[in-house]
Design a protein that fits this description.
2 copies of one chain form a homodimer.
Chain A (H helix, E strand, L loop, with lengths): L7 H16 L6 H7 L4 H7 L11 H14 L6 H17 L3 H12 L2 H24 L4 H22 L8 H16 L1
Helix pairs in contact in A: 1-2, 4-5, 4-7, 5-8, 5-9, 7-8, 8-9
Chain A binds a DNA duplex through helix 3.
Pfam families (chains A, B): TetR_C_14, TetR_N
Protein name (chains A, B): TetR/AcrR family transcriptional regulator
Keywords (chains A, B): DNA-binding, Transcription, Transcription regulation
Chain lengths: ~190, ~190
DNA sequence: GACAGTGATTGCAGTTTATGAAATCACTGT
DNA sequence: ACAGTGATTTCATAAACTGCAATCACTGTC
């Protein structure tokens, strides 16, 4: 038999997800999470930089996907449209199929300021990555950052709607709508 | 003589500012800050919710000013212009005169991820406050949030430039320029 | 088949952040 | 005089994180 049960990281993530859902983030200790996963507190911190990170395993994957899509996009497409197309591609791949899980996670994060803070931090990192990808396409750095910020604004507006129970339109469509809203709002 | 030296809060802020500047945020303990201010660690936490908050004393004041300006603005002005005008008014009051201090603080925050995270959090709170102020003017909540987000994008772009040593134009002017950049970028 | 090397996990000691509860005591108003 | 206020302090404690050394199934090599 193997020395340890496999998939330690996934088990920790699952345990954390459950416990945060049951008791809330701040009433759950890292020791508790580790115990439910059949591991040690020390091992938790070997895998995650801090208690919050356990909820953000997918964000790096998401970021890579977006950047890849932007790089793959036709150079003739206006920058902001390129960003939104990339978001739409990622929406299909990473959001649409896991609506239940995404909404559940959204609810957990929404219930705790520390987690919201980390979410903002991830969003900022994604913004910078998008800006870098746009800059690689030849866009001026400052305009690139502005465009990336506008793209994230679109993303936020769309996700906001998409996570509401009443909403049934696909995220892809909501992204288009949000982009249109932004354009009329800003002009 | 008074039982305690006056201005405990200010002394803590000043001590923290100095120490973060000298040794960096993470190599400074709360006990150290309190000691330099002639107070106790416990007293520090009586005044500030956590170690980071000591650097964000002005953000609530800033937020109030912005919201006040927006409410005072003519109802005929397009929403985004109202927001940028409010930011310009606050820029004159709270930034232009303290350029040195603002830049120093900016440098400290820039050097530490935890502080950046908190900065983002304050920014998000300000965004929400602006959106609420716009909603109070009759704007649809979702459009209000989008407009507020666009306004903060303008603010960020302008501050970014303003804190660069080479830049000499007043913040007010940079805000106008950034708004123009956003408009051409998004359309 | 022995055997050195790898790497995920663990135990433990220690620092730091943060909080709750009770005590102090100059100052205030009556 | 004297009770009440409130900023501060002391003490105790939980919980988050870190550094370091040790474990030991697994891997490949000779």
């Amino acid at each position: 038999m193997p020395r340890w049960e496999p998939d330690g990281v996934e088990r920790l993530q699952a345990a954390a997800f459950e416990l945060f859902d049951e008791q809330g983030f701040e009433h759950t200790t890292v020791a508790e999470i580790a115990q439910r996963a059949g591991l040690t507190q020390r091992t938790f911190f070997n895998h995650f930089a801090d208690k919050r990170e356990v909820l953000f395993g997918l964000s790096s994957e998401f970021q890579q996907e977006i950047v890849r899509e932007i790089a793959a996009c036709a150079d003739t497409l206006p920058p902001l449209d390129a960003v939104v197309r990339a978001l739409q591609a990622a929406a299909d791949t990473m959001f649409e199929e896991r609506r239940a899980a995404v909404t559940r996670r959204h609810k957990i994060v929404d219930a705790n300021p520390e987690l919201q803070e980390r979410e903002l931090s991830k969003r900022a990192a994604l913004t910078d990555a998008i800006a870098a990808a746009l800059h690689a396409r030849g866009l001026d750095p400052e305009i690139a950052l502005l465009t990336a910020g506008a793209g994230m604004l679109v993303q936020q507006t769309a996700i906001q709607r998409w996570t509401q129970p009443a909403e049934s339109r696909p995220l892809r469509e909501l992204l288009s709508a949000a982009l249109h809203s932004l354009r009329t709002t800003v002009s």
